[in-house]
């Protein structure tokens, strides 16, 4: 093909693409086969987009109605070509599609690769692929010739993957009549991809279920030989589909090489007819918490591709991948109007209920497998507890927790309620940002002494959904908020039993500490939740939990933080000793009062209120303990 160099324009890749290409060119890959899957996936998408545009403009398909993907082998020229007769690309679309990165998830993917040590980066490439740019794993140069359906002109995009690409008019007579031709000039060590049987094996394994027929031409001038018939997997009876078929299709539509943790395939009949095929991945997407991440459910109508990111599932199920094919939705309206139709709303309800139902079955029947799903996606599922009140009861059944009684295993709310202690009136929880710190929190001491189980919640979302939660007739109550209400629950060990009442000396000390701290605290009171520690901070009965208050403050949504309550363990040896001091030790007692408050802040994950004053007070106390000046 001859290109007019006078009309050739040269451009630099976007910075993110250049970085990605550098990773590809200068790395060693564990599985370069991924490039075939990626190029076929792009070709299939192009064919599906043409099907959709042809609804409004049938003339686009008239000249060549049979959509197909063809892989051409040229052993002598050391070229491999993947060609489709799909929608094609214009000049501007070539630059946009092949010169920039459209999805933020790819940036997160690159950051993970850059951070990976040793061979992990190669494994990640093999697992997730990098779209069109994966061609540079095996090609020293890539040419893309494309003609937009319905257009007269054709364009060629070329690059060696080293920072720049060029775009030029392509000779019309040698360009495809419609669609895209990707020509790979293979590296010396990629010659195995010129072997027909190697290609056929890879195509069948990775892309055998794309909804477009795939053929291989094993040398120039030879007849094409079909290797995949383009039959839609989701339209087949479940009895005709093997586990390997489901896995291959999962990999082809997700771009991942992990195994699906759960496959959900069903056909809805009755008032609305549709087929859904959904997968729960076994690994967490890099952009799972990206605020701009959309759902990844493809929408088809009568096997006509409509969109890649239909909002079929709520945001808290955004990790689910798959597709829905409807027999009822209209084809002659825009994608936006389709998603606003009552039929689409009914499909959303049906698919969401089925996914939640199958997750519940997995949780009940295969606890070990479900534990892996929960570990990956539990924090996202919990978003539904405050986003989707209608399905809160169904979501409660999916929740799993680490607790003070669970050890390494997970506990359900059903398990928790079945283990309630006599006179226990609430489901107790402790929220924080570090599981290790939660496990040693002083707030748990009184609960442990009574054998009362406490949920340990370390996800940021936990601070929000528990605020108005209730299960089995029991409200959720934070162990860091209000009074502990433990007096009616007997202790397991008499040594941990609270004294009948606080001594007068300790009461006087508590009053002294309250007066000394002044406006820094809302109150100072004796504690029935502490057994080993001297002090802790709790929130008042009204207002937010301590952790929720911190999150709101850090997000700028809380102008004034509530003053905490300082609880003092009246049975602690240090407190008893401080209470026994004479009035002439008031200076030392003032230092001790402030240090007790700072100790409680440290135990709560905060800093002392004033680092300099904290240091000075600590120095004076240490000097006293060493026999120095008491002042």
Structure, explained:
By secondary structure, the chain is of the alpha+beta class. It folds into 3 domains: 5-231, Heat Shock Protein 90 (2-Layer Sandwich), CATH 3.30.565; 234-370, 2-Layer Sandwich (Ribosomal Protein S5, domain 2); 501-625, Up-down Bundle (Four Helix Bundle (Hemerythrin (Met), subunit A)). 36% of the residues lie in helices and 19% in strands. It is built from 22 helices and 22 strands. It has a 9-stranded mixed β-sheet, with helices on one face. β4 (139-147) and β5 form a beta hairpin. α1 (15-25) crosses α5 (104-115) and α18 crosses α21. The chain is elongated and about 105 Å long. The model is unreliable at 117-129 (pLDDT under 50).
Structure described in brief:
This protein is an alpha+beta fold. The protein is built from 22 helices and 22 strands.
Q: How far apart, in Å, are the first and last alpha carbons?
A: 94 Å
**Largest beta sheet: what is the strand line-up?**
1-6-5-4-7-3-2-8-9
**CATH fold label of the largest domain:** Heat Shock Protein 90
CATH class of the largest domain, anyone? Alpha Beta
CATH architecture of the largest domain: 2-Layer Sandwich
CATH homologous superfamily name of the largest domain? Answer: Histidine kinase-like ATPase, C-terminal domain
The structural domain count equals: 3
Shape: elongated
Structural Rg: 32 Å
Poorly predicted regions are 117-129
- Please count the helical segments: 22
The secondary-structure class comes to alpha+beta
Average of pLDDT: 86
The overall strand count is: 22
Beta-strand residue percentage = 15-25%
């Amino acid at each position: 093909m001859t290109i007019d160099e006078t009309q050739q324009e040269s451009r630099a890749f976007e910075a993110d693409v250049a970085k990605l290409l550098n990773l590809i060119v200068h790395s060693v890959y564990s599985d370069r086969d991924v490039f075939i899957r990626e190029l076929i996936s792009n070709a299939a998408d192009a064919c599906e987009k043409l099907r959709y545009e042809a609804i409004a403009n049938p003339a686009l398909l008239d000249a060549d109605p049979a959509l197909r993907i063809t892989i051409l082998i040229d052993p002598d020229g050391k070229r491999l070509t993947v060609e489709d007769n799909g929608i094609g690309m214009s000049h501007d679309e070539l630059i946009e599609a092949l010169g920039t990165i459209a999805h933020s998830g790819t940036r997160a993917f690159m950051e993970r690769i850059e951070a990976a040590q040793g061979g992990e980066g190669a494994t990640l490439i093999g697992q997730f692929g990098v779209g069109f740019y994966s061609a540079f794993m095996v090609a020293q140069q890539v040419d893309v010739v494309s003609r937009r359906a319905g257009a007269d002109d054709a364009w060629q995009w070329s690059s060696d993957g080293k920072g720049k690409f060029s775009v030029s008019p392509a000779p019309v007579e040698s360009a495809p009549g419609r669609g895209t031709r990707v020509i790979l000039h293979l590296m010396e060590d990629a010659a195995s991809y010129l072997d027909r049987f190697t290609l056929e094996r890879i195509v069948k394994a990775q892309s055998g279920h794309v909804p477009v027929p795939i053929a291989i031409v094993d040398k120039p001038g030879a007849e094409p030989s079909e290797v995949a018939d383009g039959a839609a997997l989701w339209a087949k009876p479940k009895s005709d589909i093997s586990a390997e078929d489901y896995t291959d299709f999962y990999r082809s539509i997700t771009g991942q090489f992990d195994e699906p943790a759960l496959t959900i395939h069903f056909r809805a009949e009755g008032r609305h007819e549709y087929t859904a095929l959904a997968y729960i991945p076994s690994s967490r997407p890099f952009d799972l918490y990206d605020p701009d991440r959309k759902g990844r459910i493809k929408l088809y109508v009568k096997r006509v591709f409509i969109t890649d990111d239909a909002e079929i599932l709520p945001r808290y199920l955004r990790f689910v991948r798959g597709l829905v094919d409807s027999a009822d939705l209209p084809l002659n309206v825009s994608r936006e109007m389709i998603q606003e139709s009552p039929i689409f709303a009914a499909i959303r309800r049906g698919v969401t209920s089925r996914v939640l139902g199958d997750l519940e079955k997995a949780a009940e029947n295969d606890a070990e497998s479900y534990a892996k799903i929960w570990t990956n996606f539990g924090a996202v599922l919990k978003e539904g507890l405050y986003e989707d009140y209608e399905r809160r009861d169904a979501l409660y059944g999916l929740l799993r927790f680490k607790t003070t009684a669970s050890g390494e295993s997970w506990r359900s709310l059903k398990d928790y309620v079945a283990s309630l202690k006599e006179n226990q009136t609430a489901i107790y929880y402790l929220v924080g940002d570090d599981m290790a710190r939660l496990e040693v929190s002083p707030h748990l001491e009184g609960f442990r002494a009574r054998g009362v189980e406490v949920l340990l919640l370390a996800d940021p979302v936990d601070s929000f959904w528990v605020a108005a939660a209730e299960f089995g007739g029991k409200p959720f109550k934070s162990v860091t908020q209000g009074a502990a209400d433990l007096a009616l629950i007997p202790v397991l060990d008499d040594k941990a039993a609270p004294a009948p009442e606080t001594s007068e000396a300790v009461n006087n000390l508590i009053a002294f500490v309250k007066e000394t701290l002044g406006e820094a605290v809302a109150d100072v009171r004796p504690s029935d939740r502490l057994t080993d520690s001297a002090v802790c901070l709790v929130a008042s009965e009204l207002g937010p939990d301590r952790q929720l208050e911190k999150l709101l403050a850090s997000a700028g949504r809380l102008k004034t933080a509530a003053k905490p309550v300082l609880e003092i363990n009246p049975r602690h040896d240090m407190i008893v000793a401080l209470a026994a001091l004479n009035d002439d030790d008031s200076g030392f007692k003032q230092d001790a009062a402030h240090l007790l408050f700072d100790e409680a802040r440290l135990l709560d994950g905060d800093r002392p209120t004033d680092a300099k004053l904290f240091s000075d007070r600590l120095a004076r106390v240490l000097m006293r303990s060493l026999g120095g000046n008491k002042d």
